[in-house]
Amino acid sequence: MELKGLAAVVTGGASGLGEATARLLAANGVTVAIFDLNRAAGEAVAAAIGGTFCAVDVTDDASVDAGFAAARAAQGQERILVNCAGTGNAIKTAARSRKDGTIRHFPLADFDRIIQINLVGTFRCIAKSAAGMLALDPMADGERGVIVNTASAAAQDGQAGQAAYSASKGGIVSLTLPVARDLMDDGIRVNAILPGIFNTPLMNAAPDPVKDSLAASIPFPKRFGDPAEYASLVLEMCRNSYFNGEHVRLDGAIRMAPR
């Protein structure tokens, strides 16, 4: 796929993996709309790359519809969608309190929240973006568009406390092939990336000893991933027209321990 002159939407584009992706796409001639809840950060990134910011909650149908309408009015129908919006929590399925011995289970509202943001929110954006792409004429190579989703290494080896997060990211891995098959006759490709431990705002908030220990657990290179490395793989998945229906780990060969 030739990227120059195309339009893209990047969810979660105000920071971390999404910001790096938005910046790299823009540097390669793509006009980018950023979907995010952080207006100040999102508007700053959009201004820096000559793009558009749309305040979007991926768990809300009307919000996503309004975001796509605003993005398309500003830059035309997107041919590229990158889903980076997501969050996590750390709660055991059931546990006994070390303080008083009381037993509690995973609050189901907290489980549902992660599924709604990471999995349902991702699919909501996929479905709405793909419907828009179907209205486009195919390009010279027969493609109408490409979708890249963000899963996680935790989809395959989630740690203790990651039941909701791993389930949400495992769902993204599992939907990759069937969605690619749903859209194959219309020239829309679908892939997923499974990042390991990356240098994002969430990880930067951890204490230095925790970050040092995590970095040491990565086989090679012994450091956190750089968001620019994630963005580079997104770019390759967009450019390489034979990349379809695939999920790829990007993790320095780490395999997560139980805790």
TrEMBL record:
Pfam families: adh_short (PF00106). Keywords: Oxidoreductase. InterPro entries: NAD(P)-bd_dom_sf, Sc_DH/Rdtase_CS, SDR_fam. The keyword Transmembrane helix does not apply. SUPFAM superfamilies: NAD(P)-binding Rossmann-fold domains. Coiled coil: none annotated. GO terms for molecular function: oxidoreductase activity. Belongs to the short-chain dehydrogenases/reductases (SDR) family. This is Short-chain dehydrogenase/reductase SDR.
